[in-house]
Amino acid sequence: xxxxxxxxxxxxxxxxxxxxxxxxxxxxxxxxxxxxxxxxxxxxxxxxxxxxxxxxxxxxxxxxxxxxxxxxxxxxxxxxxxxxxxxxxxxxxxxxxxxxxxxxxxxxxxxxxxxxxxxxxxxxxxxxxxxxxxxxxxxxxxxxxxxxxxxxxxxxxxxxxxxxxxxxxxxxxxxxxxxxxxxxxxxxxxxxxxxxxxxxxxxxxxxxxxxxxxxxxxxxxxxxxxxxxxxxxxxxxxxxxxxxxxxxxxxxxxxxxxxxxxxxxxxxxxxxxxxxxxxxxxxxxxxxxxxxxxxxxxxxxxxxxxxxxxxxxxxxxxxxxxxxxxxxxxxxxxxxxxxxxxxxxxxxxxxxxxxxxxxxxxxxxxxxxxxxxxxxxxxxxxxxxxxxxxxxxxxxxxxxxxxxxxxxxxxxxxxxxxxxxxxxxxxxxxxxxxxxxxxxxxxxxxxxxxxxxxxxxxxxxxxxxxxxxxxxxxxxxxxxxxxxxxxxxxxxxxxxxxxxxxxxxxxxxxxxxxxxxxxxxxxxxxxxxxxxxxxxxxxxxxxxxxxxxxxxxxxxxxxxxxxxxxxxxxxxxxx
Amino acid sequence: xxxxxxxxxxxxxxxxxxxxxxxxxxxxxxxxxxxxxxxxxxxxxxxxxxxxxxxxxxxxxxxxxxxxxxxxxxxxxxxxxxxxxxxxxxxxxxxxxxxxxxxxxxxxxxxxxxxxxxxxxxxxxxxxxxxxxxxxxxxxxxxxxxxxxxxxxxxxxxxxxxxxxxxxxxxxxxxxxxxxxxxxxxxx
Lengths: 575, 188
Known about the structure:
Strand content of chain A: 15-25%
Oligomer: heterodimer
CATH class of chain B: Alpha Beta
CATH topology of chain B: Pyruvate-ferredoxin Oxidoreductase, domain 3
Mean pLDDT of chain A: 97
Number of helices of chain B: 8
CATH topology of the largest domain in chain A: Rossmann fold
Distance between the termini of chain B: 25 Å
Radius of gyration of chain A: 27 Å
Number of domains of chain B: 1
């Protein structure tokens, strides 16, 4: 049977067909749907872990017990899980272990543009790189086979255009391998120096064997063209190359990006007149090919920044691109914004109004950085707001303590914010932490997390009590406010900044997009009362705009949160 | 049949459902299909674009400038934003709805007046008030399907096959509403 699946859906299908039984992940664009769609199969146990390191270790444990396991994450998630990855390379596996990592060239929804292929090389584990959904499904099954045959975790590298592009796949039945009996194996699984010293040579030997495999495996393939040039490429770049050249150029399509073949590349090079490499982000294949002493052009022609397309490839090779029409009028930008009724807005307004320095974090609430709220001072990585604020205050002392806070979402706090809070309590900085608790993982599209009381299937689960948790790590001052109540938020922020001890403010209200949230009727502007003061415009609410000199509220967007009503001094906004 | 279609709009307007419908329809026609979606941050009220390509064999999942046979726009400013992606003989099908982007709301930029007139001088534009038609069909959220109905006019695929694709794509309780929305767009 044929089906149209996004790359991530094809991976999920591959997990199902390969008999994978355990999936543990933390959501992150563009990887989230792998786990969400795997969870639709009742035969696979799936869970959202608090972070990627936990997820990978769960997958390790499942493999240790002999079952096929997987974890999926975005590229920056692999940074968090890098610790287990590097030593998993030494222990190897019992049940097949597949780690999916999704890069985001072009940064559609990410804070950096790192190239995960470097991890495969650094951790000395094989990495497969599918170029469409069909390959995503096939490679997932192949990855489990390789994992068990070569005693190694296997990375599958996705990118946005493969992860989020639908293409046609062929479905097969699920086949679950026989459960391996559990046997204690200290030499393989206890990585203390004496044992690890013996495992490292195994890893080097394994890479040699995998390189031999790369020489013949159909994961890599030659497509001989009619012309004289040869192009080595992989992933979505392969698609652009084929779109431009068709059968004109010879192509060595790389499906296993680590380890790369040696003889096969030399042979390919010898059969073409001029050799090129087309790869997004860093010149990983190029470095390898140049190390073989071959003459090749790659990053001289192509940027290591952003995504490619067929036109980018065509232009680099001096080919004509399609003509098009333009208009003269400048089209205003349309950046993403916090939704109308977003519970983060009220707290951000208060912070912005009081000119407070705000160390931010990763999530929807990063959008508070944009005008007119312009509420943030920094955003680094998951959890960095809390630990960063501690450092900021240690460096700034009294000068910063009374006018700086950090903001972090509920899911991000569970991911890696709580360790920063432990540090604040333990090493005693007078820091004020604001947890923006919207009771869901928002940005990635509403995933449950340990604070929501539900698991990935939507079934009731243990619910972490944030107040109790914060108190347990040593914070005495913990208070909860409603971000729809500006007065309450302002009082809390001023009081907690004034006291001489660390504190946590939990700004709590569920994401307005949650189906369980009951919306209020929209509010409207009494044009006679509106004095055009534009106070309501300071909220940056997409439902409010100025028309004919007066404020106007879009009733299709407004959810009646009432925050703008509180700002209007002339009672011009009402139900 | 080789076609490249772009679906553009504002995050949250329902472009994912439209692209899913279109993808399924084209696959049912026995064509190779690629649909490139956008997830994550830009979905939060930002400018979003989905590429749908079909043919005997489709390699690239994306469409470049001068590459789209058709641009279906859920909002008129978005039609203008992506006009350079239209082929020389292509058509823009656009909703006449105006949604102010944040720079316009804050006063940092102005929403260009008569943008559709300017577009029409340069390229073929098929504009309709899809919001009113969707509301007439029963929900303002059905703008996406109204526009798919309009798009069907430019395809050599029977009306029934579109309806079949709607029936297998949308949730059962919304099928009738969406069939009505499709019809209103088609017969506009």
